[in-house]
Amino acid sequence: MAAMKRRLSIAGITSLALASVPAAAEPTKVTQGAASNLGVMSVSLKDAVKLNYGLQGQLQGAGTPNEAGIGGFFPLRVGTQSVTFLDALANLNFADYPGYSSIINVTVAGGTVSTSTRLGQRWLNGDRSWMYGVNFGYDSRPMATGPADTGVNISNSQTVFFQQLALNAEAVSDKWSALGYWLMPIGEYGWGSDNAARINNLYAAHPMNTIGADIAYNITPDAKLSLGYYYQDESTGYSGAKARLAYDIANGLTAGFTYTYDAAYQSVAMGDIKWRFGSKGYGSPKKQKPPVMPVIQALATTPTNRDVRVHITTWENRLKKSWEEVVSRGCLPRYEDYYEEYVAGGHCGYNPDDIRSGKIK
């Protein structure tokens, strides 16, 4: 009887032990299946999103200059699921390539400093699979001008000042991202003013009102390809297409190549580079292992589209446009009639070339 009790006790203990195995194994199975989710959910934003700063530079593009400068990303408030930030840049602008204008017809001279600031809010969705954000800011660009790239002799080159407001909306996942933006000129040459800044005796220039959207895909953890469309408002408006490939060389070090095409600037290719230090191994000569998750990394990424884009027109065209506005009010004859009869014919007692060049004011 005692032996029977011992056998029953051993059997009971063994049964209990066997019964406990699935219960112990089950949590392990769940943990392995949800490892990626637990990884991103376990990240503390206060540890991941910190001040970062560094250098950036780019070659001239469609209406933008050769430039290099410094910048910084400043977290103002970091919560459990969101970040409020300020991002600021200052760039030294360099001269255009000899004989090749970034604004069409007239080359840009160097020696000016442009600035850009963005104030924004970014937040994660419930399971941290997407990051959403909005930011807005102000950009300024003093622009000095040089010789024409068309062989035309020009004189009285001027340095003019352009400025714009910018609005960006973004969404980022581990694989896909989307960005919408609006660059709106303000001030004396702002959107809707129909004003252009006289930059020399023959030409005037104005900032471009630009609205665009980009869609990007992470080809690999280090390479991103994006395609975009933009509309830039001039007298009639131009649509354009954009393609970009960016590659993360090391922590915080990114190089990119961008190609754009539109009727105003035609085909333009440019390169850029950015090196940021200060957060999660940024500045290290080797890549961080494991890599920072794209959704988390996006919370502290510096916003894009920071340049005031400029295009050119002839001063005569601006005079003609202003004249036609007055004519529409019934105050003056048509510009063509006046120009052909009096200016081109030299009946005003002035040299027609002096009038065309702006020497007669």
Give your account of this protein's structure.
The chain is α+β, with helices and mostly antiparallel strands and 361 residues long. 21% of the residues lie in helices and 45% in strands. The protein is built from seven helices and 16 strands. The strands form two sheets. A twelve-stranded antiparallel barrel has the order 1-2-3-5-6-7-8-11-12-13-14-15. Strands 9-10-16 form a three-stranded antiparallel β-sheet. The longest helix is centred in the first third of the chain and has 32 residues, at 2-33. The protein is elongated and about 65 Å long. 27% of the residues are buried. The model is unreliable at 1-36 and 281-285 (pLDDT under 50).
Short description:
By secondary structure, the protein is of the alpha+beta class. Helices cover 21% and strands 45% of the residues. The protein has helices at 2-33, 35-41, 45-48, 294-298, 315-328, 335-343, 352-356, and strands at 52-58, 66-78, 82-94, 106-109, 112-124, 131-148, 159-172, 176-186, 197-198, 203-207, 209-218, 223-233, 238-250, 253-262, 266-277, 310-314.
Which features does this protein show?
about 350 residues, alpha+beta, twelve-stranded antiparallel β-barrel, three-stranded antiparallel sheet, 7 helices, elongated, disordered N terminus
Question: How is the topology of this model organized?
Answer:
Elements: H1 2-33, H2 35-41, H3 45-48, E1 52-58, E2 66-78, E3 82-94, E4 106-109, E5 112-124, E6 131-148, E7 159-172, E8 176-186, E9 197-198, E10 203-207, E11 209-218, E12 223-233, E13 238-250, E14 253-262, E15 266-277, H4 294-298, E16 310-314, H5 315-328, H6 335-343, H7 352-356
Antiparallel strand pairs: 1-2, 1-15, 2-3, 3-5, 4-6, 5-6, 6-7, 7-8, 8-11, 9-10, 10-16, 11-12, 12-13, 13-14, 14-15
